[in-house]
Amino acid sequence: MKQVHGEKLLASLGDKVKELRGRLTPDAPMDRVTWFRAGGLAELMFQPHDADDLVAFLQMLPEEVPVMVAGVGSNLLVRDGGIRGVVIRLSAKGFGDVELVSETKVKAGAICPDKNLAAMTLDHGIGGFAFYYGIPGTIGGALRMNAGANGGETRERVVEVHAVDRKGNTHVLSNADMGYSYRHSSASRDLIFTHAVFEGYPEDKAKIRADMDAVRQHRETVQPIREKTGGSTFKNPEGHSAWKLIDEAGCRGMMIGSAQMSPMHCNFMINTGQASGYELEYLGETVRQRVFETSGIPLEWEIKRLGNFMPGYEVKEYLGELTA
Ligand SMILES: Cc1cc2nc3c(=O)[nH]c(=O)nc-3n(C[C@H](O)[C@H](O)[C@H](O)COP(=O)(O)OP(=O)(O)OC[C@H]3O[C@@H](n4cnc5c(N)ncnc54)[C@H](O)[C@@H]3O)c2cc1C
């Protein structure tokens, strides 16, 4: 695995880092973070103790150092050459709580698992959150990806989002400011969401419980949820299902190295063993090419791909939609 230069970056920050209460880890293995269990090293990982610690760190970090934030990596494909700069991982202690704000409103920290928010709304008879029961990510990831399932979406429930920018300034965004569309938010990429307020509606607990059970049962029968995966690989193109296009292109079960398009749900890519980031991404691009050749439809990645390729293992993006 290629080494990045985390110790050097850490040393360049000097003694100021001693004031921080969070944890700094140079050359942090991202394969321990992502659900794919693949990918290279993050040059430096910072786990802030709380929001003040996050602000203090961003204010001391030189402007030219790139920063990205990871949730639990259930939608991330990290390349084998690793990630230059800093990866922020919010600590459960500082950013993991979920609490009731009013009869129908809840406040959740950005590293709170979606499932915990769903469970707490069930306890209080608040409807509109059952879809979160089946999504394995965190609230931060849901806010960024407009995560949704079973007819529900994050954008329907968000009231306001609290965030910190790259310079350490704090912001409060309204639902409209988040610029939501299908699996996308146009909110500035440099924002780190710290927590958000959501609103549901009063609902019978038995009905919420039944909806959650239906969500769980559906997933267990149609998705490879116990595999090393990143969830849906590609977005559904307008008027089409990505999985159907992939199936029709003959890519169900297709393998490159240990990376495979799941035979169970062919829009889920899985790591069947020790797949590298290269194998996973190369498989994805090969599928995009086959689908374009058979249907004329360009698939768009839903999974976020990050970091640098290992030299000699670059994956060329299939640009069929531009060159055909
Ligand atoms: C088995 C399985 C099933 C899935 N099913 C669904 C589904 O039904 N519906 C669905 O929508 N998704 C689904 N996913 C994908 C994934 O769970 C969601 O996209 C989830 O919202 C990602 O959350 P995360 O914490 O894992 O984010 P990550 O994968 O760590 O990050 C995803 C993106 O969010 C950004 N991000 C994370 N935290 C923050 C933050 N605090 N501030 C700003 N940006 C942040 C990251 O920078 C990255 O761009 C599934 C994944 C798996 C593995």
Defining key terms:
324 residues; alpha+beta; Uridine Diphospho-n-acetylenolpyruvylglucosamine Reductase, domain 2; Uridine Diphospho-n-acetylenolpyruvylglucosamine Reductase, domain 3; Uridine Diphospho-n-acetylenolpyruvylglucosamine Reductase, domain 1; 3 domains; five-stranded antiparallel sheet; four-stranded mixed sheet; 26% strand; globular; binds flavin-adenine dinucleotide
Characterization of the model:
This protein has 9 helices and 21 strands. With 324 residues, it is of the alpha+beta class. The strands form 7 sheets. A 5-stranded antiparallel beta sheet has the order 6-7-15-11-12. A 4-stranded mixed beta sheet has the order 1-2-5-3, covered by helices on one side. It has a 4-stranded antiparallel beta sheet with strand order 17-20-19-18. It folds into 3 domains: 6-93, 2-Layer Sandwich (Uridine Diphospho-n-acetylenolpyruvylglucosamine Reductase, domain 2), CATH 3.30.43; 96-208, 2-Layer Sandwich (Uridine Diphospho-n-acetylenolpyruvylglucosamine Reductase, domain 3); 225-315, UDP-N-acetylenolpyruvoylglucosamine reductase, C-terminal domain (Uridine Diphospho-n-acetylenolpyruvylglucosamine Reductase, domain 1), CATH 3.90.78.10. The mean pLDDT is 95. The two termini are 37 Å apart. Bound molecules: flavin-adenine dinucleotide. Flavin-adenine dinucleotide binds at residues 35, 68-76, 90, 110, 134-138, 140-142, 144-145, 147-149, 192-193, 223, 225, 229-231, 304. It catalyses: UDP-N-acetyl-alpha-D-muramate + NADP(+) = UDP-N-acetyl-3-O-(1-carboxyvinyl)-alpha-D-glucosamine + NADPH + H(+).
